[in-house]
Structures are given as C-alpha cells and as structure tokens.
Amino acid sequence: MFGDIARFLLNTLFTLFGAALLLRAWMQVVRMPPYNPVSNAVMQATNWIVLPLRKILPAGKIDWASILAAFIASLVYVVLMVVLAGVDPMLMVPMLLLVAVLTVIKWALNLIIWMTILMALLSWLNPQSPAMPLLYQITAPFLDPLRRILPRLGGIDLSPILLFVIVQVLLMVVTRVAVSMTLFGI
C-alpha cells in the first residue's frame, strides 16, 4: 500500500512540474506575453531550475533550458520509480535515459490534453473568460490544422475531440513502450 501511495504522489508531483516546464517552453514558442498571470505563475514555479540552466543553454526561439529541465525532472522521476520497484537503477542506466525521454513525451501529450479540455470547457461555460485568449494561443498550433480538415457541424468545433483522440492514441503507444522497457508504468 505504501508503494502505491508513493508512486501516486511521485507521479502527480513530477507530472505537474514536468508539465509546467514544458508549458514554459511552449509559451515561448507561441510568444505568450510574460506579464499575464498564467505565464508569471509558470515562470515563478520553474525559475529555480531553468535560470541556472540558461547559463549553459541561452534562450532562443526554443527554450532548451526548460526542455532540459523537464528531461532532468523526468530522469529523477524514473529513477525514483525504479527504486520504489526494488530495482537497482545503476543496472538500467541506458534504458532509464530512454524511458526519461518517453516520460517527457508523455507529459507533453498530457499537457496538450489538459489545455484542450480546459479550452473546450471554458468555451462552453464562459467564452469571455480572460483565460480564453491564452488557451487559444497555446492550443491553436494543434487545433488549426485539424480545423482545416474537419467541417464545422452547426457551429460546433469538433477539432478538440479529434485532437483528444489522436493524443490519447499516442499516449497509449508511449506508455506501452515505456512499460515494456521497465516492466512497470511511468
């Protein structure tokens, strides 16, 4: 029972932190203004690890420091999960590096799902919400290509549903590969 609780807590903590790091990198790609409350909160939550890494990897169009920080966080997470499974992580170093990369991909896919669901819910419940422009800016690169393919049905945008299905399938593939490599879930 303790192991299940510890795995749940680690998964929750590291997934949220990894998603924040990836959101920080994505906000830079879509040129989200840094003065809004969401950007400010993400920056403050992640500055402690990203700013020191910026000395090694300066910011450009892609925030490599945030992506490296997400990889470091995923590596720590995977090592902790392996230790909780009762396996010596030193026996699995090359595989752990690959599983850490898969974990970052899984976090990115989860982030896409969360942002899409949040945007869809707010568009139905409160389309005038101050968060809508931010969510639209973050999700537009994923949804706009799908909007060109899918017709609108009576004013209903089905692109979030299609994106959700695509990302869920990708999550299943990534999770299956990671589980087959480690014999436990990430």
Largest sheet: none
- Helix proportion range: over 70%
Structural class: mainly alpha
How many domains, as an integer? Answer: 1
Number of strands: 0
Unreliable residue stretches: none
The H-and-E topology, N to C, reads as HHHHHH
Task: Tell me the overall shape.
Answer: globular
What's the average pLDDT?
91
Transmembrane segments: 64-84, 96-125, 161-184
Protein name: Membrane protein
Pfam family, one: CCB3_YggT
GO cellular component, one term: membrane
Overview features:
186 residues; mainly alpha; 6 helices
Write up what this structure looks like:
By secondary structure, this protein is an all-alpha fold. The chain has one domain (about 1-180). Helix content is about 75%, strand content about 0%. It has 6 helices and no strands. It has helices spanning about 1-30, 35-55, 65-85, 95-125, 130-150, 160-180. α1 (about 1-30) packs antiparallel against α3 (about 65-85), α1 (about 1-30) packs across α4 (about 95-125) and α3 (about 65-85) crosses α4. The longest helix is centred in the middle third of the chain and has 33 residues, at about 95-125. The chain is globular. The two termini are about 20 Å apart. About 30% of the residues are buried. One of its GO terms (cellular component) is membrane. Keywords: Membrane, Transmembrane, Transmembrane helix. It holds the Pfam family CCB3_YggT. InterPro entries: CCB3/YggT. It comes from Caballeronia glathei.
Per-chain topology:
Elements: H1 2-29, H2 37-54, H3 64-84, H4 93-125, H5 132-149, H6 159-182
Helix pairs in contact: 1-2, 1-3, 1-4, 2-3, 3-4, 4-5, 4-6, 5-6
Transmembrane segments: 64-84, 96-125, 161-184
Pfam families: CCB3_YggT
Protein name: Membrane protein
